[in-house]
Amino acid sequence: MMLRMVLQQTGPSDGSLESANGATPGQSGANDTPLTVTAPSPYAPTTGLRNPFPPIADYGFLSDCENTCLISSSGSVEWMCVPRPDSPSVFGAILDRGAGHFRLGPYGVSVPSARRYLPGSLILETTWQTPTGWLIVREALVMGPWHDIEQRSRTHRRTPMDWDAEHILLRTVRCVSGTVELVMNCEPAFDYHRIPATWEYSAQAYGEAIARASRDADAHPTLRLTTNLRLGLEGHEARARTRMKEGDNAFVALSWSKHPAPQTYEEAAEKMWQTSEAWRQWINVGDFPDHPWRAYLQRSALTLKGLTYSPTGALLAAPTTSLPETPHGERNWDYRYAWVRDSTFALWGLYTLGLDREADDFFAFIADVSGANNGERHPLQVMYGVGGERELVEEELHHLSGYDGARPVRIGNGAYNQMQHDIWGTMLDSVYLHAKSREQISDTLWPVLKQQVEEAIKHWKKPDRGIWEVRGEPQHFTSSKIMCWVALDRGSKLAELQGEKSYAQQWRAIAEEIKADILKHGVNERGILTQRYGSDRWTPRCCWRC
């Protein structure tokens, strides 16, 4: 399942996340009036105001390709994990209203006039109207020029790029009319709301404070809050309140690493500009048609890029955990990991738009986790941690209420050691698509690909748990058989590119054997592919580009 987030703008939602795992898209909202993509749009709540949990579709998504966060329509950061996207949360109100939040907005107003992403970027802009004035708030996870110059990065394994994360959540405010009472409340809750925060001032005046975990502080990140507002520390919360008049500016920066936070509004504005430039330089590389849907394609590409983890090349299935598949349901899983299947589908989308750097980095990530770079050999798993971790032990957090009462809340994912026979085909198809334009495969990658074909040959006759990740008995899922055929078909074509004609001939023959088996056992009397062998139930998920 993939979290789907929409800022209410137009029918094809500008800024949505959708999963290759098969989440059913939700409705874009009650406002069906056509609007331009880049212009601010009227905000239309999708449910009644009594529910304390905002609709999932109303969350805005920010990323710096190392961390992500979700911001509710009321201006509150309600999901953020640092220093990695699969680390314990420091703001977790999306899963429990008391699990940490960070709000910045006008006092007494919780519904904005408009929200949008700045064109070509993952910078969120919110316009607020109050009875006495207007505010514009911009928010971003800061990106700046590559900074590890004198010493190599301890986390980055991929080739350095021009831009890198600065580990700063930056929020700027501008009063554009009248006067507005601005409030800020920052209340972290470390380790999924298991450890409260303790605050202390870290400067002579009121412009900076530090939050640490009240227990075992060295094992958790230190958060530094820097602002030109006057901070007050009240229990577990840092607060600020001021009256802004037309022309006034303010900034708040939350940082968690060695990179210096801005000290003035001018420095904050410069970092915001650098972040927009980083995103726009990336999107400019893409090949987008001159078409009314161009902006939607770009927004989708930016969202996929925001799910990448640049230090390793991994690509997240989603930035969240335990958002329910059905309202108040129990199928609440942790998707903050790199699924091979989801990643290859996402890379296919980016590649068709001319954005292939992410594919290079992901295939290097696969080479790492498969052991190709150190002489070891590991079977390809369904999923990995963003750092390449192979064990993702599942745990339930019973102290959290869950989103709108959907329990249990889970971290980790027990499907990591499942057998899902489609993964070899999805990866080989993605590599084949990528390799066709280059007519070559690296010497490091070819042994990895060969191993995946051999795994498909070894297992295609056996049952598995399928793309549904069933936790009951394995079945002979038709979609898994088809993807094993894809593995052999694409493997034979890759072997031809590599000049391995004997492998190409052998694998092509096995592909024909798998195809015949599918046609015999996986098609019902109406000529429709079934979900599994021996069943008449059909499924659209059997479809594939062949």
Element layout with pairings:
Blueprint: E1 41-42, E2 60-63, E3 68-71, E4 76-81, E5 89-91, E6 101-106, E7 114-117, E8 124-129, E9 133-145, E10 163-187, H1 190-193, E11 195-201, E12 208-213, E13 223-227, E14 232-234, E15 237-245, E16 249-255, H2 265-285, H3 294-306, E17 308-309, E18 314-315, E19 338-339, H4 340-352, H5 357-369, E20 383-384, E21 395-397, E22 409-411, H6 423-436, H7 445-459, H8 478-498, H9 501-521
Antiparallel strand pairs: 1-7, 2-3, 3-4, 4-5, 4-6, 6-10, 7-8, 8-9, 9-10, 10-15, 10-16, 11-12, 12-13, 13-16, 14-15, 17-18, 19-20, 21-22
List low-pLDDT spans. Answer: 1-39, 541-546
Radius of gyration: 24 Å
Global outline = elongated
Largest sheet, if any? 16 strands, antiparallel
> How much of the sequence is in beta strands?
15-25%
Task: Give descriptors for this structure.
single chain, 546 residues, 16-stranded antiparallel beta sheet, two-stranded antiparallel ribbon, 9 helices, elongated, disordered N terminus
Structural notes for this entry:
The structure is a single chain. By secondary structure, the protein is an alpha+beta fold. Helices cover 25% and strands 23% of the residues. The protein has a 16-stranded antiparallel β-sheet that branches. A two-stranded antiparallel sheet has the order 17-18. It starts with 40 loop residues before the first strand and ends in a 25-residue tail after the last helix.
